[in-house]
Task: structure prediction
Amino acid sequence: QEQLMESGGGSVQAGGSLRLSCKVATITMSDRCMAWFRQAPGKQREGVANIDHSESTRYSASVQGRFTISRDAGKRTLYLQMDSLKFEDSATYFCAAKGGSSCPLNAVSAFGFWGQGTQVTVSS
Result:
């Protein structure tokens, strides 16, 4: 059974918005660091945003002010609201989860649970 499953990707024009969702199957959300990563073709996977057990959020400089991460434990869902999308936001977006108290923004190897990814394409 997949632990994390993303949805909500698609194609949008620059300046538009999308909301990604990540449904969490069995792992507990509230005490984990939950994150969104993205990977464009030929590039390394990079951290976009995360939210820790205290609901503190962190964003990469490239999306700060445009993206918002949130979660609804009752619905077992992590969200990424993406506004003012740019061509360079085009990538496959992954949600991820890790246990423990640390919540690093850009440490791919620290996250033990991953979704399959959802494609976001922004046309200029």
User: Anything to note?
Assistant: The first strand starts at residue 4 and ends at 7. The two ends are 37 Å apart (CA to CA).
